[in-house]
Amino acid sequence: MVNKLPMCKTTEECDMAVNTSFEWRHKILDAFCNMSEDVTL
After folding, report:
1. Distance from first CA to last CA of the chain, Å, rounded?
2. CA angle 18, 20, 21 (to 5 degrees)
3. How far apart (Å, rounded) are the C-alpha atoms in residues 18 and 41?
């Protein structure tokens, strides 16, 4: 995600299944969303 690579390229580089990568990506994005609710500027 940081390198803005497509999902298929990311899965090749990390040697994992596309489904696993997709699920992890959404877990990370959900965690960021939950963290941002707690931040006050």
Report:
1. 25
2. 65
3. 37
Q: Token pair of 16, please?
A: 């994992």
Structure tokens at 19: 């489904």
Q: Where are the alpha helices (DSSP H) in 1-40?
A: 7-14, 18-37
2 residue type, one letter? V
Q: Which residues contact 4 (CB under 8 A, 6 or more apart)?
A: none
The reported pTM is 0.62
pLDDT digit string, tens, across residues 7-40: 889 889 889 999 998 999 899 888 888 887 666 6
